[in-house]
């Protein structure tokens, strides 16, 4: 009997998705469970979830609606009217539910918000009515003429929905920032920063909203108050997220954010966690993938202090995560300005990084090795770097990095391993202009390994960038030590033009099909 009841309920729930009347559904959702309509019940309902949970619920509902609207457009294109109508009803329910949920946990809705809500609800009702009429006619000509109206209505629904979500998220960002700026309470500030961080994790668009509403200014204000020291790590982590967009970077420049980060990094009274999160912000704002870092003029003024603090953090790191953040910041800075490489040489950074690589507790992932070899590759353009590498047994490390392989099969880890192989080959090619480095590389059997990477696609995870780097390194070593190659290797991998050798090696993948 129990099984029959469960099956019946499940079946009813499935049918309900397609058969329910949206007006009834929304009325049911809007009704309070309790008969008594007092403020206490309202408080219990609204305090069950935190602001962060409510925002996540809102974003989840928004994602569902957005996905459904996309699917409706696809079904409409194929004239699947039955599906279009049932999905339209579902979107109608989701939109009303989203509004009910949002109005439950918010206490201040603007007049513009109410206007947009009404426009969206009216347009959703119109949309449902349109698709219902389409369902009731079988005349192809009438359906064809109605299709353009349905398309226009769908576009309007999507437009109003987008505007409403934008307004809701802007209002929530404003509320959180108001709490951060006005509250003197540690608990309230921490909660608001936590919610802001969650919001920033939802993507670049949310970060732009936060930055436009003054999020970077408010967060740096926290980082300049000693009474909030225990919140620095959390605040800096949020800043790193928000500064992934151009608006965040401009705000950072306006409030002298670089100077604040330099002060935090050089202040020995701060915890390692605070220093690590400050390093993460530096890594973010100096990322070579960003196209809008050129305006960071104040960075050059503080670069020596920042680089010195980051090298110290690498040297004293108590965990792999701290080392990764500090080394990532250093790696990005070496792309940002060549002067950084000279500062690193003066600070004995090569020896520090090579020593860290021998400690598997600190450099424990391909991601960390990727940062180290990036720094070495960028420093290898300096003539003085070769002797530092030799002294620290760096050629041996570069040789080991040519064997970097992913054990987990994780795509991100495999990509990191490819970068390690590529950059270690690049570093060897650059350093091998020094006869001492070339001689050490030959003695460590680098040539056979480079040949194998060129000839065996699986050894390099089918990466073309690794292949080009290995061919370049092999050619440099062949000049310094021509006896290390067999004639066939010389004829195929060294003597031809680089592009011809590249094509020969890439065609090897098709030889055993």
Account of the 3D structure:
By secondary structure, this protein is mainly alpha-helical. Among the domains are: 49-170, Nucleotidyltransferases  domain 2 (Four Helix Bundle (Hemerythrin (Met), subunit A), Up-down Bundle); 393-512, no CATH class. 76% of the residues lie in helices and 0% in strands. It contains 27 helices and no strands. The chain has helices spanning 2-19, 22-30, 39-46, 51-77, 81-105, 111-136, 140-182, 186-200, 204-212, 215-222, 232-242, 246-254, 257-266, 272-285, 297-316, 320-336, 339-346, 349-357, 366-379, 385-391, 394-401, 411-431, 435-443, 446-455, 464-480, 487-494, 498-507. Helix 2 (22-30) packs parallel to helix 5 (81-105), helix 22 packs parallel to helix 25 and helix 24 (446-455) packs antiparallel against helix 25 (464-480). The longest helix is centred in the first third of the chain and has 43 residues, at 140-182. The two termini are 59 Å apart. One of its GO terms (biological process) is regulation of asymmetric cell division. Residues 4-48 form the Protein inscuteable homologue LGN-binding domain.
Architecture blueprint of SSEs:
Blueprint: H1 2-19, H2 22-30, H3 39-46, H4 51-77, H5 81-105, H6 111-136, H7 140-182, H8 186-200, H9 204-212, H10 215-222, H11 232-242, H12 246-254, H13 257-266, H14 272-285, H15 297-316, H16 320-336, H17 339-346, H18 349-357, H19 366-379, H20 385-391, H21 394-401, H22 411-431, H23 435-443, H24 446-455, H25 464-480, H26 487-494, H27 498-507
Helix pairs in contact: 2-5, 4-5, 4-7, 4-8, 5-6, 6-7, 7-8, 7-10, 8-11, 9-12, 10-11, 11-14, 13-14, 13-15, 14-16, 15-16, 16-19, 19-22, 21-22, 22-25, 24-25, 25-27
């Amino acid at each position: 009997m129990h099984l029959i009841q469960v099956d019946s309920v499940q079946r009813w729930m499935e049918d309900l998705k397609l058969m329910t009347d949206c007006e009834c559904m929304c009325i049911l959702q809007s009704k309070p469970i309790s008969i008594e309509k007092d403020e206490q019940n309202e408080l219990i309902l609204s305090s069950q979830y935190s602001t962060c949970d409510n925002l996540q619920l809102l974003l989840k509902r928004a994602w569902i609606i957005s996905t459904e609207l996309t699917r409706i457009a696809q079904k409409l294109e194929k004239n699947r009217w039955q599906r279009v109508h049932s999905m339209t009803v579902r979107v109608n329910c989701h939109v009303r539910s989203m509004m009910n949920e949002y109005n439950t946990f918010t206490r201040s809705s603007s007049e513009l918000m109410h206007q947009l809500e009404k426009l969206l609800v009216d347009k959703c009702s119109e949309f449902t009515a349109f698709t219902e009429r389409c369902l009731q006619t079988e005349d192809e000509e009438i359906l064809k003429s109605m299709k353009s109206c349905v398309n226009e209505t769908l576009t309007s629904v999507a437009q109003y929905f987008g505007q409403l979500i934008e307004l809701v998220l802007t209002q929530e960002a404003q509320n959180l920032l108001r709490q951060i700026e006005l509250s003197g309470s540690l608990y309230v500030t921490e909660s608001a920063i936590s919610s802001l961080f969650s919001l920033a994790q939802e993507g670049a668009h949310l970060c732009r909203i936060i930055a436009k509403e003054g999020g970077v200014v408010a967060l740096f204000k926290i980082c300049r108050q000693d009474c909030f020291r225990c919140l620095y790590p959390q605040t800096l982590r949020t800043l790193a997220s928000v500064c992934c967009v151009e608006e965040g970077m401009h705000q950072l420049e306006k409030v002298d954010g670089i100077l604040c980060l330099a002060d935090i990094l050089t202040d020995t009274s701060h915890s390692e966690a605070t220093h690590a999160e400050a390093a993460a912000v530096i890594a973010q704002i100096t990322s070579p993938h960003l196209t809008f870092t050129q305006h960071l003029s104040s960075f050059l003024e503080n670069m020596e202090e920042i680089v010195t603090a980051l090298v110290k953090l690498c040297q004293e790191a108590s965990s792999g995560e701290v080392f990764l953040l500090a080394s990532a910041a250093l790696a990005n800075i070496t792309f940002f300005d060549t002067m950084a490489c000279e500062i690193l040489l003066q600070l004995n950074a090569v020896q520090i990084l090579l020593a860290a690589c021998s400690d598997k507790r600190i450099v424990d992932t391909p991601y960390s090795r990727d940062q180290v070899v990036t720094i070495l590759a960028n420093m290898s353009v300096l003539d003085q770097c070769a002797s530092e590498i030799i002294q620290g047994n760096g050629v041996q490390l570069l040789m080991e990095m040519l064997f970097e392989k992913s054990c987990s099969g994780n795509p991100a880890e495999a990509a990191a391993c490819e970068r390690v192989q590529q950059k270690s080959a690049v570093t060897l090619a650059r350093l091998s202009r020094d006869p001492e480095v070339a001689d050490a590389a030959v003695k460590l059997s680098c040539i056979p390994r480079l040949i194998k990477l060129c000839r065996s696609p699986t050894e390099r995870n089918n990466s073309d960038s690794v292949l080009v780097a290995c061919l370049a390194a092999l050619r440099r070593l062949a000049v310094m030590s021509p006896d290390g190659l067999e004639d066939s290797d010389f004829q195929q991998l060294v003597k031809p033009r680089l592009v011809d050798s590249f094509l020969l090696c890439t065609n090897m993948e098709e030889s055993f099909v």
